[in-house]
Design brief:
Belongs to the UPF0229 family. InterPro entries: UPF0229 (IPR006698), vWFA_dom_sf (IPR036465). It holds the Pfam family DUF444. This is UPF0229 protein SAMN05444158_6308. It comes from Bradyrhizobium canariense. The chain is an alpha/beta fold. The protein has three domains: about 15-60 and about 110-125, no CATH class; about 150-225; about 235-425, von Willebrand factor, type A domain (Rossmann fold), CATH 3.40.50. The protein contains 15 helices and nine strands. It has helices at about 15-25, 30-40, 45-50, 115-125, 160-175, 180-190, 195-215, 255-275, 295-300, 305-320, 345-355, 375, 380-390, 405-415, 420-425; strands spanning about 50-55, 110-115, 135-150, 225-245, 275-285, 290, 330-335, 360-365, 395-400. Strands 3, 4, 5, 6, 7, 8 and 9 form a seven-stranded mixed beta sheet that branches. The protein has a two-stranded antiparallel sheet with strand order 1-2. The protein starts with 16 loop residues before the first helix and ends with a helix.
Length: about 425
């Protein structure tokens, strides 16, 4: 006889984590699509706080085997008030996507609240950091087990046989413990001896040696040594993110806002991959300076535009504070594309000879005014310079944006997983 047990108990509050994870795995494609659609309409701060998304109910259907034909009775789980013959009201009224009057049923929607980590994980799920092969372990922030010499006490499983035997041998040599070969040689001489006086001497000597051997054991408890372990700082990977931006008069607040959103998203992305991430802000006009974040985005500045000054400042900071052997270096530059014509050669040389060889990734984001079509007319001087360098083989990533909604697609395009041939082309 087959027994079927149906558990109809309701899930207690905050006790459905396993069901929640199972749901996210099953409806991952739908939830991820809703996350990316929602992220285009949010500020960066809202994106990092998670929130509520909606997915269509028809995407939650599970495949099942069903019997065709015949008469059968079913008991639906959760039924507390309906009996056979009752008419069930239609669910989902007033929600979802309605159809035209008289043309079929409405489309119900399922609203789902995501935590901050779930939201960011889903958004960054199909992204990857470029060139993660070089990862230097330096910054110690966690602990691990490490060998720390020997101890006189410990677990039998940690006995060091080699160290114990060597110490026992040293003790026997120091105390001049009789060797078994010496005693055996004297016994052989005694067996062949015919002189009673000599036999008495050999007998006494053999007895003394055997007594001394018994007093000095082959292995003594003081010889035993145990391998000792202790918790030691365990290094983790670290990265530094350089933010370079033109703050001359041609850069409007809208352009700076676009750059800020890209920088923030890149920082969040790096924090998902590295335990320790530092940020360096370098702003420039015709001269560059390292500043704090508030000054970087809001501090007034005036002057011309020399991109080489920012690249030189970044090179000096890397050389003095961030050794490439110890740090994974990432850089993102934002500009409206203006640069002095005479500065092009200097900037190109600094970028190709000093910056790119030590960088894991370098992205150039050219920003424009909202609704501007200037990108379609002609390329800027800086864009033309970087495009020429990339054609010559420089590993540069370049994109243009003029509207807030383009930031996420551009970021996704820069970091989406792709094959080796695509990586070489980008």
């Amino acid at each position: 006889m087959v027994i079927h047990i149906v558990d109809r108990r309701l899930n207690p509050g905050s006790k459905s984590l396993e069901n929640r994870q199972r749901f996210l795995r099953r409806a991952k494609a739908l939830v991820q699509g809703a996350v990316k659609k929602s992220s285009q309409e949010r500020d960066i701060k809202d994106v990092l706080e998670g929130g509520e998304v909606s997915i269509p109910l028809d995407g939650m259907n599970e495949p099942r085997f069903r019997r065709e034909g015949g008469t059968r009775d079913m008991v639906l789980p959760g039924n507390k008030k309906f009996i056979e013959g009752d008419i069930l009201p239609r669910s989902g009224e007033g929600s979802g996507k309605a159809s035209e009057p008289g043309e079929g049923d409405g489309e119900d929607a399922f609203r789902f609240v995501l935590s901050r980590d779930e939201f960011v994980d889903l958004f960054l799920d199909d992204l990857e950091l470029p060139d993660l092969a070089k990862r230097k372990l330096a910054q110690a922030e966690s602990e691990g087990i490490q060998r720390a010499g020997y101890a006189t006490t410990g677990s039998p499983a940690n006995i060091s046989v080699s160290r114990t035997v060597s110490r026992a041998m040293a003790r026997r040599v120091a105390l001049r413990r009789p060797r078994p070969e010496a005693i055996a040689q004297l016994e052989a001489e005694l067996a062949e001896c015919d002189d009673e006086t000599r036999c008495a001497e050999l007998t006494a000597e053999i007895a003394a040696l055997k007594a001394k051997a018994r007093r000095i054991p082959f292995i003594d408890p003081i010889d035993i040594r145990y391998r000792r372990f202790e918790t030691m700082p365990k290094p983790v990977a670290q990265a530094v993110m350089f933010c370079l931006m033109d703050v001359s008069g041609s850069m409007t607040e809208h352009m700076k806002d676009l750059a800020k959103r890209f920088y923030m998203l890149l920082y969040v992305f790096l924090k998902r991959r590295y335990r320790h991430v530092e940020i360096v802000f370098i702003r420039h006009t015709d001269r560059a300076e390292e500043v704090d974040e508030d000054t970087f985005f809001h501090g007034p500045a005036s002057g011309g535009t020399l991109v080489s000054s920012a690249l030189q400042a970044m090179h000096d900071i890397v050389r003095s504070r961030f050794r490439p052997a110890d740090w994974n270096i990432y850089a993102a530059q934002a500009s409206d594309g203006d640069n002095s014509f005479s500065d092009g050669e200097v900037a190109g040389r600094l970028l190709t000879e000093m910056i790119l060889p030590v960088s894991q990734f370098f992205a150039y984001l050219e920003v424009g005014e909202a609704g501007s079509n200037s990108f379609d007319l002609s390329d800027s001087s800086l864009w033309s310079l970087y495009e020429r360098l990339r054609t010559d083989g420089a590993p540069l990533s370049m994109r243009k944006v003029s509207d807030r909604s383009e930031i996420f697609p551009v970021f996704h395009d820069l970091f989406h997983r792709r094959g080796k041939h695509e990586r070489a082309a980008s």
